[in-house]
Amino acid sequence: MLTTIAPPDYDVDIELLYATPGNLAGVPIYRRSLCLLHPDAAARLRTAIGLARGIGCRLRIYDAFRPVEAQWRLWEAFPDPAYVADPRLGSMHSRGVAVDLTLADGAGRPLDMGTDFDDMTERSHHARTDLTAEQQRNRALLLGVMAAAGWSHYACEWWHYQLPDANGYPLLTDAATGGVLMA
Fold first, then answer.
1. What EC numbers are recorded for this enzyme (predicted)?
2. Is residue 50 predicted with pLDDT exceeding 90?
3. Which residues form the domain of 152?
4. Residue 183: what pLDDT?
C-alpha cells in the first residue's frame, strides 16, 4: 500500500531526521531511515520533483509516512497541537499523504528558509515578513513547486505539505510497513 521513495526511482535527497537523534524528541524515533508515501502522494511528489528540477533545485525530504506509534512519541516530546498533531485525532503523516521537505540547490545545499526544519516557533509560519528577502523568496519557491504539483501547505510550518483531501485516507500503524520502521 505504501510506496518507497528513494533514488533512483525518485530523484530526491533523503534525510529522515526522525531516524536520528537530531529531532525535537532528541532520540531516534524510527529504527531505520525508510521514506514511504501513499501511491497518490508519491505520484504528486514525482510531479514536484520535476518542477523543482525545472528551477535548478532538488527536493530534500525530512519526513514522510509517520506511523501512529511515531506520532505518539512526537506528541509526548512536544504536545503542542499547532505543531504536532494530536495522535488521537490523527496526523496527515500517519495517513501517508504528507511530506516535510525543503529545496536544495544544484550542489545539494538546502536553501535558507529562515529556520531549521522542526523549528516550532512562529518564525516557521508561512508568509512571514520579518525574514530576509532571500528567505521569503526561497519559501515562495517551495510553496510554488508544491502547490503546482497539487499539494496543500500547512500555515504554521514552511516545510509541511499534504494532499488536499488528506483526511479521506485511513490512519496507518507500523504494521503497514511490516513492522520495520519503528524502534
1. 3.4.13.22
2. yes
3. 3-177
4. 60
